[in-house]
Amino acid sequence: MHFAGGAWVASAIYYFFFARDGGYKLSIPLLPGVLFVVGAAMVVGVCWEFFEYGMDVIAEKYLDGRAINQMGIKDTMGDLFLDLVGAFTAAIYCLAKRRA
After folding, report:
1. Residue 66 — φ and ψ, nearest 5°?
2. Four-residue CA torsion sign, 92, 95, 99, 100
3. In which element (H, E) is residue 79 found?
4. Cα gap 64→78, rounded to integer Å
5. Over the stretch 2-49, which tens digit does the pLDDT of each residue have?
6. Are 49 and 76 in contact (CB under 8 A)?
7. How far is CA 59 from the centre of its chain?
8. For residue 40, how many other CB atoms are within 10 A of its CB?
9. Tens digit of pLDDT for each residue in 75-90?
10. What is the pLDDT of residue 73?
11. Between 30-62 and 2-14, two packed helices, what is the crossing angle to 10 degrees?
12. Cα 62 to Cα 39: distance, rounded to the nearest angstrom
């Protein structure tokens, strides 16, 4: 799910900044474009992990720990890594396709 989420967010960011009619249509080289799209997607991924952590804190406080989602730092790092791989894959695909 995190791979697909990272790819979807990166694709949406690419569309908004580079491909949308009437949008910004930034014309920058491939590497800075990929770094921009992947970086923006990773910000969304980190915000999602903060959201998950907040939900765990609320669940622990009000539901006696019955709805704990996070399984520790390994889960969080795995989620962020899959966000990164998905975003990188989508950014390379979208920006390379645009140049062809």
Report:
1. -75, -20
2. positive
3. helix 73-99
4. 26
5. 999 999 999 998 888 877 665 556 667 778 888 999 999 999 999 999
6. yes
7. 25
8. 18
9. 889 999 999 999 999 9
10. 81
11. 130
12. 35
The closest alpha carbon to 80, from 55, 47, 58, 56, belongs to: 47
- Answer yes or no: are the C-beta atoms of 84 and 53 closer than 8 Å: no
pLDDT value at 62 more than 60: yes
Task: Give DSSP secondary structure letters for 16-47.
Answer: IIIISTTS------HHHHHHHHHHHHHHHHHH
Distance CA 26, CA 17 (A): 6
Length of the chain: 100
Which tens digits make up the pLDDT trace of 63-74? 766 666 667 788
